[in-house]
Amino acid sequence: MRQYAELFRVPGAKPAEFFALIGRFGYVACGLSVLFLGTARLGIGVGGLGASGLTIGVALGSPVAGRLSSRFGTSPVYAAAATTGTAGAALALSGAEARSVPGFLAGACVLGFTTPPIGAAMRALWPRTELPERLHTPANSFESVVTELLFIAAPPATGALAVIDPRLGLIVADGCVVVGGVGFASTRLVRRHLGPSGAAVRKRAARTLSPPVVWLLCVAATTAAVAGAMDVAVVSVLDESGAAESAGYVLLAPALGSVLGGAVYGLLPAERVPGRRFGLLLAAWLVLFSLVSAQSGPWALAGALFLAGIPMAAIGIEEFTLLGRVCETQDRLQEVFTWAGSSANVGVAAGSALCGYVAEHRGGTFGGWMPTAAVAVACVLYLTGFPRFRPAPAPGIRGRAEAHR
Q: Which of these, 121, 124, 328, lies nearest to 212 by C-alpha position?
């Protein structure tokens, strides 16, 4: 674990990560709070639409925040976005209390659109500091593990607040977004390293979405669709087997496996040829999800999901690491990472919707194979693009290879 401890020897890293943690917790809690509030006041259908509206808002707003950050700097953009989001939260709250579906949905969309993508900024921040190249993978791993832990901790915390008052969950969640966003934007590390992009200021032509980046974003969207399909598939399979009440506990298994796998994966040395390990992870994922799709009982399903969860964070780590390699300029790295977050949101929504449609029309057993099908598509995309878009070796590795010639 020495590599993780070294991350926080970077001056100013601790306050930046602290506020990033608060802001990301608020983002996760906002989606759940909108769902709980909408369900309590307007019914489960509207609650689900509100959560979807927030996700769509995030998917649309993240690239906008990334582009504006490249142009004007992260600090002013994130502080303004976080504070503007309170208007969306207020609109959602007032719409729910007035039993106004359009008002509630509009507020949820605004809240999502203005939520600053702090996770993307934090991932882009590490390489811009004095952090050695060998610690870039542990930094990505740390951010992935933190994200997984937030998705484990946020649901019970948000649910407890919703039990007291459905409005309280959204108020606290948006408060965390504001405190985290403004605090993160105000830290010295962010102001120093995530200022306006030189390329953007000089209006140079630097392609943010180059072909290798687009390829990796498509792979990332597909792997995110696996997660979206997985949630729906588990619920549908357990519902058919008469154990629907255990779905919430069963879905903890892949999250726990992902935390364990991500923490260990970050300790591995950088590979000589970037991208090969990513292909091996996808191949292992395909085998493991085939095992998941063959299960129907809650205990067997939980065990298989735990195993399938182990490569999950590692796959995300590889995606962000490879995006950093193929990005044409480091000045645009944050913008590329916001596109990655946006593509992940689109992938999750598409995976959930498609799996739900298949499960409803073909049955839960057939729907249970949708996550495996999504992994297979990700493998095809990887095999199609890797020979053409394979990234260059890391500078340190390339230098050592040349020294041994």
A: 328
Q: Which residue has the tokens 């390990």?
A: 277
Give per-10-residue mean pLDDT for the chain (405 aa).
81 93 93 87 83 89 91 93 95 94 94 94 87 82 88 84 90 96 94 74 55 90 90 82 77 89 84 84 95 89 93 90 77 83 88 84 85 95 84 47 34
- Which pair of tokens denotes residue 348? 């999750």
For residue 242, the 8-state DSSP code is T
The tokens 């990472």 sit on which residue? 337
What's the CA gap between 294 and 289, in Å, rounded?
9
CA distance 172 to 168: 6
How far is 343 from 326, CA to CA, in rounded Å? 17
Q: Give the whole-angstrom CA distance, residue 386 versus residue 389.
A: 5
How many Cβ atoms sit within 10 Å of the Cβ of residue 148? Answer: 24
Phi, psi of 210 (to 5 degrees): -75, 165
Rounded CA-CA distance 65/68 in Å is: 5
* Model-wide pTM > 0.90: no
How many angstroms separate the Cα of 393 from the Cα of each of 272, 274, 398?
6, 6, 6
